[in-house]
Amino acid sequence: MALESGMREAVRRVVMSFHRYAKSQGWQKEDYRVYYETNPDWGRIHVVLGARRFPRETTEENWLSVIDFIDEDLKDSPELLDAISLTLRTFDQLEGRGLYALNPSYVDSEDVFDSAGST
After folding, report:
1. Is 22 a member of any domain?
2. Is residue 118 one of the residues assigned to a domain?
3. Per the domain annotation, does 116 fall within a domain?
4. Nearest 5°: CA angle at 9, between 79 and 73?
5. Residues 26-80: tens digit of each pLDDT
Protein backbone atom coordinates (compact mmCIF):
# COMPACT_ATOMS: atom_id res chain seq x y z
CA MET A 1 0.00 0.00 0.00
CA ALA A 2 1.41 3.38 -0.98
CA LEU A 3 1.44 5.88 1.85
CA GLU A 4 1.16 9.62 1.39
CA SER A 5 4.27 11.46 2.56
CA GLY A 6 2.88 12.69 5.91
CA MET A 7 1.65 9.24 6.90
CA ARG A 8 4.83 7.64 5.59
CA GLU A 9 6.93 9.88 7.84
CA ALA A 10 4.69 9.14 10.83
CA VAL A 11 4.98 5.40 10.21
CA ARG A 12 8.75 5.69 9.82
CA ARG A 13 9.06 7.48 13.17
CA VAL A 14 6.84 4.92 14.90
CA VAL A 15 8.68 1.95 13.39
CA MET A 16 12.06 3.38 14.38
CA SER A 17 10.82 3.88 17.93
CA PHE A 18 9.89 0.20 18.11
CA HIS A 19 13.34 -0.71 16.78
CA ARG A 20 14.87 1.41 19.55
CA TYR A 21 12.71 -0.44 22.08
CA ALA A 22 13.98 -3.77 20.76
CA LYS A 23 17.57 -2.54 20.98
CA SER A 24 16.96 -1.42 24.58
CA GLN A 25 15.88 -5.01 25.37
CA GLY A 26 19.07 -6.41 23.85
CA TRP A 27 17.14 -8.07 21.03
CA GLN A 28 18.90 -8.92 17.80
CA LYS A 29 17.25 -8.40 14.43
CA GLU A 30 16.13 -12.05 14.31
CA ASP A 31 14.48 -11.79 17.76
CA TYR A 32 11.65 -9.46 16.76
CA ARG A 33 9.55 -8.05 13.91
CA VAL A 34 7.53 -4.87 13.61
CA TYR A 35 4.38 -5.06 11.50
CA TYR A 36 2.02 -2.19 10.85
CA GLU A 37 -1.26 -1.30 9.22
CA THR A 38 -2.45 2.25 8.67
CA ASN A 39 -5.83 3.86 8.51
CA PRO A 40 -5.15 7.32 7.09
CA ASP A 41 -8.84 8.27 7.21
CA TRP A 42 -8.77 7.92 10.98
CA GLY A 43 -5.09 8.85 11.44
CA ARG A 44 -4.27 5.48 13.01
CA ILE A 45 -1.18 3.30 12.94
CA HIS A 46 -1.71 -0.16 14.34
CA VAL A 47 1.50 -1.96 15.27
CA VAL A 48 1.99 -5.64 15.95
CA LEU A 49 5.27 -6.25 17.74
CA GLY A 50 6.28 -9.85 17.25
CA ALA A 51 9.05 -11.36 19.32
CA ARG A 52 10.66 -14.71 19.92
CA ARG A 53 9.79 -14.12 23.58
CA PHE A 54 8.91 -11.19 25.78
CA PRO A 55 10.93 -10.56 28.96
CA ARG A 56 8.19 -10.07 31.54
CA GLU A 57 5.79 -12.58 33.06
CA THR A 58 2.46 -11.24 31.83
CA THR A 59 1.19 -9.78 28.59
CA GLU A 60 0.07 -6.68 30.47
CA GLU A 61 3.54 -6.12 31.96
CA ASN A 62 5.13 -6.52 28.52
CA TRP A 63 2.59 -4.23 26.88
CA LEU A 64 3.14 -1.54 29.53
CA SER A 65 6.92 -1.84 29.14
CA VAL A 66 6.66 -1.23 25.40
CA ILE A 67 4.13 1.60 25.69
CA ASP A 68 6.13 3.33 28.43
CA PHE A 69 9.22 3.24 26.22
CA ILE A 70 7.33 4.49 23.15
CA ASP A 71 5.66 7.26 25.19
CA GLU A 72 9.05 8.50 26.36
CA ASP A 73 10.73 8.04 22.99
CA LEU A 74 8.05 9.97 21.09
CA LYS A 75 7.13 12.42 23.84
CA ASP A 76 7.77 15.35 21.49
CA SER A 77 4.92 14.14 19.23
CA PRO A 78 1.76 13.65 21.31
CA GLU A 79 -0.39 13.47 18.17
CA LEU A 80 1.74 10.57 16.97
CA LEU A 81 1.40 8.79 20.31
CA ASP A 82 -2.38 9.16 20.07
CA ALA A 83 -2.32 7.52 16.63
CA ILE A 84 -0.64 4.29 17.78
CA SER A 85 -2.40 1.13 18.83
CA LEU A 86 -0.32 -1.88 19.84
CA THR A 87 -0.65 -5.63 19.90
CA LEU A 88 2.06 -8.00 21.14
CA ARG A 89 2.48 -11.49 19.71
CA THR A 90 5.11 -14.18 20.00
CA PHE A 91 6.47 -15.69 16.81
CA ASP A 92 4.63 -18.92 17.65
CA GLN A 93 1.34 -17.03 17.87
CA LEU A 94 1.97 -15.22 14.60
CA GLU A 95 2.79 -18.44 12.79
CA GLY A 96 -0.35 -20.20 13.98
CA ARG A 97 -3.83 -19.92 12.64
CA GLY A 98 -6.85 -18.38 14.20
CA LEU A 99 -7.16 -15.48 16.59
CA TYR A 100 -3.45 -14.67 16.90
CA ALA A 101 -2.47 -15.07 13.25
CA LEU A 102 -1.28 -11.93 11.50
CA ASN A 103 -3.79 -10.43 9.10
CA PRO A 104 -2.31 -10.23 5.57
CA SER A 105 -3.10 -6.50 5.48
CA TYR A 106 -0.17 -5.85 7.83
CA VAL A 107 3.15 -4.75 6.35
CA ASP A 108 6.48 -6.03 7.64
CA SER A 109 8.45 -2.87 8.43
CA GLU A 110 11.63 -4.53 7.19
CA ASP A 111 10.07 -4.65 3.72
CA VAL A 112 9.69 -0.86 3.75
CA PHE A 113 12.12 0.66 6.24
CA ASP A 114 15.61 -0.61 6.96
CA SER A 115 16.98 -0.45 10.50
CA ALA A 116 18.62 2.92 9.79
CA GLY A 117 15.20 4.38 9.04
CA SER A 118 15.67 5.08 5.36
CA THR A 119 13.02 4.31 2.79
Report:
1. yes
2. no
3. no
4. 55
5. 999 999 999 999 998 898 999 999 999 999 999 999 999 999 999 999 999 999 9
Q: How far apart are CA 14 and CA 66, in angstroms?
A: 12
Kindly write down the DSSP assignment for every residue of 33-46, as one continuous string.
EEEEEEETTTTEEE
Residue 43, Cα to own-chain centre: how many angstroms?
16
35: containing domain: 5-111
CATH number at residue 51: 3.30.460
Q: How many domains does the chain have?
A: 1
CB 66 within 8 Å of CB 24: no
Would you state the pLDDT for residue 1? 45
pLDDT computed for residue 91 by the predictor: 93
Report in angstroms the alpha-carbon separations of 102 from 32, 43, 71.
14, 21, 25
Q: Is there a domain that residue 87 lies in?
A: yes
Torsion of CA 90, 108, 17, 31, to 10 degrees: 40
Model confidence pTM above 0.85: yes
Strands across the sheet with 107-108, in order?
84-90, 44-51, 32-39, 107-108
